[in-house]
Amino acid sequence: xxxxxxxxxxxxxxxxxxxxxxxxxxxxxxxxxxxxxxxxxxxxxxxxxxxxxxxxxxxxxxxxxxxxxxxxxxxxxxxxxxxxxxxxxxxxxxxxxxxxxxxxxxxxxxxxxxxxxxxxxxxxxxxxxxxxxxxxxxxxxxxxxxxxxxxxxxxxxxxxxxxxxxxxxxxxxxxxxxxxxxxxxxxxxxxxxxxxxxxxxxxxxxxxxxxxxxxxxxxxxxxxxxxxxxxxxxxxxxxxxxxxxxxxxxxxxxxxxxxxxxxxxxxxxxxxxxxxxxxxxxxxxxxxxxxxxxxxxxxxxxxxxxxxxxxxxxxxxxxxxxxxxxxxxxxxxxxxxxxxxxxxxxxxxxxxxxxxxxxxxxxxxxxxxxxxxxxxxxxxxxxxxxxxxxxx
Length: 392
Hints:
Number of helices: 16
Largest sheet: 2 strands, antiparallel
Strand content: under 5%
Helix content: 55-70%
Oligomer: single chain
Number of strands: 2
Distance between the termini: 43 Å
């Protein structure tokens, strides 16, 4: 369905849907179905035990759901029973495999941050986090995961470069690797989106076959490969979360799913929100515009940080806690930055220059931050301290 949609959209519009409308399709990855809103499955769908009376009469329209004491119940139908497993969500069963799966998702989340840092910035961040981690075993494992995130990023970067050079039109460039992709994102951004969509669709097709094998005979080694490959495929998907934690923390809550979010999940979400924040800070040249455009990710990042700290009973220095609190206040859902970003009526008459000046003033007056470089330095240092505290 994803492959067909992207192909038909491009045939009609000449560009990818992500370029034209900022609309992206994904296959099911880490979000459980139980407790989620209804989807238009037909009776007899393989892997589901739905009967005729669970659909609206005469069609396959999604049904509305309503909250109850037990969670969410479809109007005019039945929720998935507790005995019925979610389909498409692969979880290993053994304790050792679950530990490995959690580490893999940590690596996937860190790969989002790696995607938007330069090689030198990543090396500095790795060294900083290592210097803040005082336990030898924790430092060794943290460095292993950071190296894993870099390896995932390098593999994905190389695959994207090969696709662009061999299967899509590309601008001449003497550069290679990340420098080549940087050139292409500026010269031919829609071609980069197209290549990523093609790669994502190819990987998910293979994942579907692997999931069918797992459904036939559950196996922890296969489950771990599926989960790693799912996160790798999501590196290529447009505007996607790479890790289970970010999906459960943000998408699951937005969809009002009945999901359990652990400390590890919150830390994964925190690192992915930071990656998206850094991405937006680099995307907009005007400091003020970058400040209010990135406010959504700042709000999610600070919320995930707070949850990770609380659930792990970790502590920060007073000055770090003060910075976290200030960033929470600046990015409050009721605050000015998200109000500007969301186009609230109060700001409809404001010009682009007005919005930029307001956003810049908020950061300057509260944190003495005047541009993107200042904010990047502040959030990366805070991230290293949050990661060190929670991982300890």
